[in-house]
Amino acid sequence: MEIIEELNVPAPFFFDKIADSALYDIQKHTGKRITRKQLKNFEYIKQFNKNSRAKIKIDNFIDNAMYAFTTSTTKNRFAVSYVVEPVNEKSCKVRYEETMESYGLLQKINDRTVGLIWGFLRKRRFKSMLKQIEASY
Q1: What are all long-range contacts of 107-111, with beta carbons under 8 Å and residues at least 24 apart?
Q2: pTM for the model
Q3: 97 and 80 in contact (C-beta within 8 Å)?
Q4: Which residues pair with 101 in a beta bridge?
Q5: ∠ CA 24-118-107 to the nearest 5 degrees?
Q6: d(C-alpha 92, C-alpha 78), whole Å
């Protein structure tokens, strides 16, 4: 899935929101307070509920430009990236990409079926999140 949107917020403002979210998630799940400079290649385990957890790896972090991470479970692997480009001083272009690799034939069939149903809703929810960030400026 790929979404490209132009937002009426400066690129550093948008990127701060994304970076702050990552830092908060790391602190919540590890108890560690790290800096933005420490994000690249940082790995941690995220517990979703009693029986579900995932390994998160920050694959790339270029301040005010790119944030990419991978979420790995026993069933699949999600790769997500944000690329933020300034358009001018007051706006930016955000490119969000998400790919999923499923393990095992049944999981692949299940994920494709669910993906067709939920894909539209995920796009809508993501665009809504972008608008909320824009409105908070």
Answers
A1: 107/75, 107/76, 111/76
A2: 0.86
A3: yes
A4: 77
A5: 90
A6: 25
Residues of the chain with pLDDT under 50: none
For residues 86 and 76, the answer to whether their CB atoms sit within 8 Å is: no
Q: What is the DSSP string of 109-121?
A: HHHHHHHHHHHHH
- Which residue, chain included where needed, has tokens 């430009």? 65
Closest CA to 22 of 73, 64, 65, 56: 56
- Angstrom distance (rounded) from CA 35 to CA 105: 40
- Are 72 and 60 spatial neighbours (Cβ–Cβ below 8 Å)? no
The two three-digit tokens of residue 122, written as one number: 């995920």
Distance between alpha carbon 56 and the CA centroid of its chain, in Å? 11
Dist CA 17 CA 129 (whole Å): 11
pLDDT digits (tens, 9 = 90+) for 24-62: 999 999 999 999 999 999 999 999 888 889 999 999 999
Contact partners, residue 137, CB within 8 Å, separation at least 6: 8, 9, 10, 13
Is residue 59 classed as helix, strand or coil in its secondary structure? strand
